[in-house]
Specification:
This protein has about 350 residues and is an alpha/beta fold. It has eight helices and eleven strands. The chain is about 35% helix and about 20% strand. Helix 6 links the parallel strand 9 and strand 10. About 10% of the residues have low confidence.
Length: about 350
Amino acid sequence: MLSNIFLLKGNNFDDLNHLDIYSYPFDISKRIKDDFFKKVIIGHEEGCISGEKEKKKISGNTSQKYILNCVKFEIDSPIAQNVEDLNLFTVSINSKMIIGLMFDEEDNPYDYAEIFQELSYEMLNNEKFCNFEDEFEIENFLITLFIDIRRYGDEIIQKYHEIAFQSSEIFTKVFLFGIDDVGKSSLIRRLKTGQFNDNYFAPTKKFNIEYLQEDDGQLAIWDMPGNLILRKNWLNGIQDSNILIYMIDIANQMSFKESKEEFWKIVNRGDIKDIPIIIVANKVDLLHLDHQNRDQQLERAKRELMEYFQFKLLYGRNWDFFFTSVKTNYNVLKIIDSIFSMTESN
């Protein structure tokens, strides 16, 4: 599967000292040798010379939806490379930039050739094309492209191989989202390993897909970052989801207004109206509930949340709500049970 995406940008690829390097989700420039990018550039140029180079044109059925008055960026066909045992796929943009995909060793990059080229062309040559003038613009471009290609690999390529190997099950896609610092990544770790550590996770800027094998089936959980500037990418990842999980930090009332606004921005979209939703009110351990009156206090807190977040407006769709504490493992397994019961009935 796709593990990273990088972009090399410069007026002269021979001048590595003035080459701008961007990557997502991790900074590859800190993990690889200095001459790695030189090898990538040389390998791409050699691939072009050997006859793989072909400009992307608007022709055929796959490109009819991208009819444009002006083509700002020309994109070469992707070229597969193996550089320092890394499995890469690269394209050149206007001969001034190289976009590279980094795959797991066992992946076949050519499975992604068409989607890589089509998505790059569409994103670069639409009415809101990226000018690559600032780091935020470049980062958002890379994140969006990474998510779309990763989704394609998860939902198309992987399912194809599952069927090819006669797997008895197909993954249920779970879309986990919420604003930052509500406990999403900690929940994934708890489900995967059974462990929790207060200092294990810092707010993250990357999204992740984790696979869980449960008694009732297989889950692909898409853990989306809650950072403000990255929330626009929720819409890229939510497509083809079987169920949504929205997480709230019950102990941070200062975040309720923001959390409510983000929730309804997504839920009010007509294209996801039939997808079941689980609302998880996390960090109940921080409420310091009285042991003897715990149930009554939780019921009162639930009523208050229902009223504030207006969850009752979710009438007509399949949804569920419950409190959790990822830290103490309270109701965590109930999430799994609810996922399967709701997707089976949907």
